Structures are given as C-alpha cells and as structure tokens.
Amino acid sequence: MQILIFFDVMATRTMATLDAIDRRLLAELQAEGRVTNVELAQRVGLTAPPCLRRVRALEDEGVIRGYHADLDAAKLGFSITVFALVSLKSQAEESLRQFEDHMRGLPEVRECHMLNGEIDFILKIVSRDLQSFQEFLTSKLTPAPNVASVKTSLTIRTAKQVPGVPLEE
C-alpha cells in the first residue's frame, strides 16, 4: 500500500511570509470589506488585475475567511450581551466535541472559545432581554451535554470592539 502525502506550502503562510502589499490589502479589507477592487488596488498601489489575483490567492489560502457586515445588535433587538464561563464534567475529547457541536447549534452563542485552566469554555451570548437570556440559560445552556457549571457576567458597556487582527507593517 502506497500513501501519498501532499504538503501545500501556501496553506502554511504566516504573517511573516506575507509581503507588504499583502498586509496592506488585508488591512484595507479588514477595515472596509465592501471596497471595490479598483479602489482597493489604488489604495495599495497596484492595478486592478494583480490586486484581484492577490486577494483571490489570500482567499484560496484561507487567510481571508469571509466578508461580514458589522451589525448593531441593539438596533436589531438584542440588547443583552453576556459572557458565560462554562466548566464541563469531563474533558475527554468526545465530551468536548459534543459540547462544541451543541454550541454551534445555538444561534444566541456568537463565540465559543476553549480555555486552559479552571474554566473550560468562554461563550459570548446575545439575547433580546434578561428574561430571554434566563430562558436560554436554563433551557439550552445549563442542560447542554457534559455541563458541570456556568457562571455568567452581563456586559454593562463595551469600550472597544475591533474585529480581526492588528496588521502593522
């Protein structure tokens, strides 16, 4: 039996391997995802065709994962943002996977991060109001697979909320 392993060098690009133009492209797109290719090319000092090729390459490599609108949660009726610290009964891989799969199915859970230390996961949850959050907490989060405990903190205000990563040259 012969096993072939293909290694995609481009899939392993890191910030260190991106050139200055790639970093500028990423910074511009991160700041304004709806910029036209022509405008983007002008901003980074390229003509439109090579600009588009570079952007497509960054998309194909997974450096650019997608484009999203930044929505105002409060204006859409989601006035509550809560962070939940979740501890699980078991940290076995299958238990972790079941919990993560359950969280992916809950639209109120906007972020789910596994942590090291005492707490297993931190969740960012949006809700319409306190009553809706309480219902979510008791009917969907605490009975989730393998949950041992949940500690929640309601966001009072947000001083900074910046998507993406810092792209400095």
Q: Can you walk through the features of this model?
A:
It is a single chain. This protein is α+β, with helices and mostly antiparallel strands. It folds into two domains: about 45 residues, Arc Repressor Mutant, subunit A (Orthogonal Bundle); about 80 residues, Alpha-Beta Plaits (2-Layer Sandwich), CATH 3.30.70.920. Helix content is about 35%, strand content about 20%. The chain contains five helices and four strands. Strands 2-3-1-4 form a four-stranded antiparallel β-sheet. Helix 1 crosses helix 2 and helix 2 packs across helix 3. The longest helix has 13 residues. The N and C termini lie far apart (about 50 Å). The N terminus is likely disordered.
Give the C-level CATH assignment of the largest domain: Alpha Beta
Overall pLDDT score? 90
User: Secondary-structure element sequence?
Assistant: HHHEHEEHE
Level of helix content? 25-40%
| CATH architecture group name of the largest domain | 2-Layer Sandwich
Derived from helix and strand composition plus strand pairing, the structural class reads alpha+beta
Number of E strands: 4
Strand order of the largest sheet: 2-3-1-4
Shape, principal axes of CA atoms: elongated
- The radius of gyration over CA amounts to 21 Å
User: What is the domain total for the residues?
Assistant: 2
Supply database-style keywords:
169 residues, alpha+beta, Arc Repressor Mutant, subunit A, Alpha-Beta Plaits, four-stranded antiparallel β-sheet, 4 strands, disordered N terminus, Tscrpt_reg_AsnC/Lrp_C, sequence-specific DNA binding, AsnC family transcriptional regulator, Tscrpt_reg_AsnC-like
